[in-house]
Task: structure prediction
Amino acid sequence: MSDSLASKYIEIQNVEQTFKTAKGPFCALQNVNLTVAKGEFITLIGHSGCGKSTLLNLIAGLTLPTQGSLICANREIDGPGPDRGVVFQNHSLLPWLTCFENVYLAVERVFGASSRVNGTQAETKAQLKERVDNVLAMVGLTAAAQKRPGEISGGMKQRVGIARALSMEPKVLLMDEPFGALDALTRAKLQDELLAIVAATQSTVVMVTHDVDEAVLLSDRIVMMTNGPAATIGEVLSVNLPRPRSRVDLAENTDYLHYRKAVIDFLYTRQSHVEKQAA
Result:
């Protein structure tokens, strides 16, 4: 892979997103420009309505921009694809299937008989099962493989969602506030597990969050969005903290506190002021 592609694995160029509403056009995003390097962990943060999830959906190919372009690995994003795995805040599991079966659906779609449309050799059922077993083990769910979503906790459901996304071996992992509905202790545990998974897989990650501490703990860069409508990128903060990261060690780290303060200042001082002016 060329240095140019590695440093610009995802390119977002002059993107605007306008929606048609009963009250007329609504501009959610405008003039958004961002590059993401291969293996980089990016978080998108901002107040509600700032277009974080809209931007993530554009990268996922779930919606197309009104203007501008999005490129991943030198190919224009023109729809969803297995090269971009998505983890939603709602785990979106099929309740009548087991954890194993929920993940197997994705694995079979990408690597099974249906993958022949891509000109690749279909894997055997034994190979597909091995893939599912391996990814469930990665997220610590081997013992729960045959349980259905109604029989496991919220945190475990989110692990299944993460396992399902990882099982497709995506080039990019996209996460939309995946821990937002969880209690603080479960959230912290899954953040730590995510750090370990990303370190092992070297995944490129773009994650939406509203949690400042989560953003600083996980990120290589924090992309801070201005208030909507017509939101854009207000500032990008590089987080130069060594990896692997420990939340206990970082609790009193002066650099960590500096990054945290910078994000809080942007969100609750500068953007709060803009919000009041717009009211």
Notes: The radius of gyration is 19 Å. The CA atoms of residues 98 and 146 lie 5 Å apart. Residues 275-279 have pLDDT under 50 and may be disordered.
